[in-house]
Amino acid sequence: MSFLGRGASTSNGGINHERLEMAMNEIEMVSDVFNRIVSSCHGKCISNRYAEGDLNKGESVCIDRCVAKFFDVNKKVGEKMQAAGANAQATGSSSFSL
Predict the structure, then answer these.
(1) Alpha carbon 59 to chain centroid distance?
(2) Rounded to whole angstroms, what are the CA distances from 43 to 33, 38, 66?
(3) Is the pTM for the entire model greater than 0.85?
(4) Strand, coil or helix: what is 29?
C-alpha cells in the first residue's frame, strides 16, 4: 500500500483524499518548522556581512547548538501539551496551562 492510499484500501482505486490531505498538512508543518529554524538560527549565528563563502567554525558550532536547542524545546513543549491534553481528558476540563 502506498503512502497516499493507492491500492487495495480504496474502493474506487483512486487516491485516498484524506491521506493526501494529511500528507499535505504534514509537509506544511515540516516546512514551517524548517523555515522558523533557518530564520531564527541564521539571525543569531551568522553575521549580516558575509566575508566568506563558507561558514566559519564559530558559525557552524552556533548553528548546531541553535538547531539542537530548537528541537529540544520543541520536544519539551510537545510533551507538556500531551500531558496537559491527557490530564484535561481525564478530568473533563478543556483548559490547560504550560
Answers:
(1) 23
(2) 15, 8, 11
(3) no
(4) helix
Residue among 46, 48, 47, 50 at smallest CA distance from 37 = 46
DSSP state of 3: T
How many angstroms separate the CA atoms of 31 and 28, rounded?
5
CA distances from 37 to 22, 32, 45, 65, 71 (A): 23, 9, 11, 12, 9
What does the pLDDT look like over 10-24, one tens digit per residue? Answer: 455 678 899 999 999
- DSSP track, 37-94: HHHHHHHHHS-SS--SSS--HHHHHHHHHHHHHHHHHHHHHHHHHHHHHHHHHHHT--
Torsion angle (degrees, nearest 10) of CA 15, 17, 18, 21: 110
Q: Residue 30: which residues within 8 A CB-CB, separation 6 or more?
A: none
